[in-house]
Specification:
24% of the residues are buried. The protein contains 6 helices and no strands. Helix 1 packs across helix 6 and helix 4 packs antiparallel against helix 5. The longest helix has 31 residues. The two termini are 19 Å apart. With 141 residues, it is mainly α.
Length: 141
Amino acid sequence: MFGVVLFALILLFYGVILSGEIVVKAFPQTKSFYKSVEETMDKGATRLFLSLGAIVVGIWNFFAPDFTALYSPPVIGALIPSLLIIVSGTVIYPNVIEILNIPQELKDKYYSYIEKYKGFSGIATFFAGLLHLILFRQILF
């Protein structure tokens, strides 16, 4: 129970951080909050630590034992939120792709894709966190 709530709060946290552009367009009064979030993210290695934290938490959530599931880990309860938090980690710090040995044109495509869908990944992560809180006792699929 505690792990589910903690993971849901982590999903909500990353969802709020990543959905800044979309939220500011919908609610202009949040502009100062997201400006301070961006300033904090640009200081030091904050992005790197948040990115690594999201990736580790996503992998941990997927492979951690679920003692309430009778058969196998549920798709909606483990796979989708884990993938969303891992994607959020790569969106927060997109330079993580520099460690891979791939052509520069693919890296440029990756950067443009990340920039285009950054807000959408934040909204998806936020709603996954909400669903994780609401349906924490349900085993779906």
